Model the fold of this input.
Amino acid sequence: MKRKKDLYRLIHAMSKSEKRYFNLDAKKSGKKDAAYLQLFNTINKMETYDESILKAKFKHLSVDKAYLYNAILRSMRDYHSKKSRAAQIKEHLMDAKYLYERELYDLCEAALQEAKQLAEELGDHLSLLEINKQMRKVVKTTKKGIGEGALVSLQEVAKKSSLGVHEEFLALDADDLIFSKTVSRKELTNQEIEQFQKYLRELKIRHEKGFSSIHAEHRYHRASGFFNLLVQNIDEYFKAYSNVMKWWDKNPEFKEEAFYNYIIDVSNFLAACFRRERFDNFAMLIERLEQEHPTNIHHQKILFQRLFQFKLVHNINFGKIDNILIDAEEVHNGLLKFSINQSTQKVLILNIAILFLVSEKYDKCLNWCDLLLKKSKTNVRKDIDRGIYYIKLICSYELDEFELFENICRSTNRFLIKDNHSLMQYFLDFLQMIKKLVDTPLYTLKEEMINLKKYIEKMRFEIAGRIPLVGVDEMTICWIDSKLQKKSIAEIVRAGRKN
Done:
């Protein structure tokens, strides 16, 4: 712990059940009024960190903070070791070391065997090598099995584990190369492509022979998927992530231990399905995620984010509006429950607003638009803010309330001028064309709607790639078509998907 807020961040990252466990664990010592426990409860109640309050209340603050920080980590190791096989392996290894030093060699060997069984179940070759090293010490100390080749046998086992570790790090090297390019959004150089293809060739040979490490197989398919995404080979991207999901289906026992990785992989496969328009797989994966019920608060958070990011996009693209009220309530509850970055919050709120637009519930759509704008205190995702003003203009036009429409026009104009984007004129022109619709006689309304549609299509073509329109432009065209064809927006969206 180096920074003043580290302890605050740690405590506020804990789930309710973790905090409850820590309190009970701390009180076992019989010191219910211990300074470090009081410090824990004080910091836990803080909405924002204030060091001055703590200094006034605790005389030995730096000592108490250091003690509390370590006490929390000790308690959490105990709390999670009951659920984590990886943690149990480490505990068995520590037990074995203790028992060896007390010359209780039979008990030491039993602890190592338990650790070995768990490590084999997890495919944890690094732990298997550590277990192997300690087993050799026991054999050499007790001389048990020396004549029967016990050490030779352990050496052969170690070679297999070493091969597994080598495979895992080979796959990690490939994965890291692609990951760095994905994050930096830079194109692969010819040299990097050649280097990655060399990794893939070696991994493919090992895959065909059968990996010693089950995790190397997983990372091989995942790295292959990201590589093909970067070089825009969508068919191979889809194929690689199909293999990633087959790996999870074959090895379900790893899901509990690595649930976060599982959700990320499902998310990437959903993206691959969407790009390749394999919507049968997409719907199946959404249903699969909906059946997950993790108990860990952090797993609940990542599941909520990824599920609704994809589910809402799918519903928008297919005009699925039957459960919009249920989805909106779940998103609202999730945003209250979880601490989610502003960018993701905006994406989720935008998509709910668009779905309410598609379902023609314009008053509810406006409510969600206003909710999003309340969160726009920074420059995070200003493109979404522009899209929200688009939607607000359409909703206020549809609600046919003159004062509301005028207020939204004025607030949109203020936003655009303050935004001062280099392409602001496109948005100001759109605003004027929407205002013109209000005063247009009924017999020329169709013509003005067609002009608006042509303008949006022109706008999309001219500023494509220079400014994202977050799908609102496309949805505006669907709204116009619904007017021209006298159909619901959802019908237009569904018809567009069929075409």
About this structure: The two ends are 58 Å apart (CA to CA). The mean pLDDT is 88. The CA atoms of residues 267 and 306 lie 6 Å apart.
